[in-house]
Write a structure and sequence with these properties.
By secondary structure, this protein is of the alpha/beta class. The chain is about 35% helix and about 25% strand. It folds into 2 domains: about 150 residues, Rossmann fold, CATH 3.40.50.720; about 110 residues, 2-Layer Sandwich (Dihydrodipicolinate Reductase, domain 2), CATH 3.30.360.
């Protein structure tokens, strides 16, 4: 058992954190060695299993990521941008694989993650799902095949608690479409339309966000021309699709050299 890779879960009390703890604890390919929460959280000092309403797992939730990472071969992180940047530096110091599912990352965050990746393996993706990554590749190919007579709109829906928009997955599809078109996404991106916006600019890539209920994640990439539309769709009904991808990435990274990777690398796409 001690030969199995040790995994630390950050953001232990979150929806993804809880799902990841259960998955790692039930796996025969890895072992849970740490759970991290922010200082002052009610779970600090308690056994992670008891926090989830089950049997003790022998792992207490801590607010000291450095101490937890020192025991880990991989850190799985679905938290917030500021926390993820801090965790990236600490994971690199521990030479642990850092699997990042955090969304809302900006250029400054990515620069710091790039710096950490010089010393350790970082696998970062807007979405860890196999289906989503396949759809991103299809989006790139369709965008390359269809000219600017076809407008591109990415429509995404998530639960009411999601704090960033467009979603990381929507931006992933937007980047794939921009790559297919050979354009810069930031230059082509249009989101948050309101009021008198004027006619749509030729070649723009639009984003529309829906928030409500407990929607896990739904994404449409629409290619619309006069008289016809092509719609690529992915619907996630359970967070287990993201958990499976994150665990696969944590194991895949064990044999890689330091650097920055994504789920396309993990899946061989």
């Amino acid at each position: 058992m001690q030969d199995l890779p040790g995994i630390v879960i950050t953001g232990a009390s979150g929806r993804m954190g809880q799902a990841l703890i259960r998955a790692v604890a039930g796996s025969d390919r890895m072992r849970l060695v740490g759970c991290v929460e922010r200082p002052g959280h009610a779970w600090i000092g308690r056994d992670a299993g008891a926090c989830l309403g089950g049997a003790d797992l022998g792992v207490a939730v801590t607010d000291d990521p450095l101490e937890a990472f020192a025991r880990a071969q991989a850190v799985i992180d679905f938290t917030a941008p500021a926390a993820t940047v801090e965790f990236a530096a600490l994971a690199a110091q521990a030479r642990a694989v850092h699997v990042i599912g955090t969304t809302g990352l900006e250029a400054a965050h990515h620069a710091k993650i790039d710096a950490a990746a010089r010393h350790a393996v970082v696998v970062q993706a807007g979405n860890m799902s196999l289906g989503v990554n396949l759809l991103a590749r299809l989006t790139q190919k369709v965008a390359a095949a269809l000219d600017e007579d076809w407008d591109i709109e990415v429509v995404e829906a998530h639960h009411r608690m999601k704090v960033d928009a467009p979603s990381g997955t929507a931006l992933m599809f937007g980047r794939a479409a921009a790559e297919g078109r050979g354009v810069d996404l930031e230059a082509a991106k249009v989101s948050g339309r309101d009021g008198i916006t004027g006619a749509r600019a030729r070649g723009s890539i639009g984003f529309s966000a829906i928030r409500g209920g407990d929607i896990v994640g739904e994404h449409d990439v629409m290619f619309a021309a006069d008289g016809e539309r092509v719609i690529l769709r992915h619907i996630a009904t359970d967070r287990s699709v993201f958990v499976r991808g994150a665990l696969k990435a944590a194991l895949w990274g064990q044999t890689r050299k330091p650097g920055r990777y994504d789920m396309m690398d993990v899946l061989g796409l």
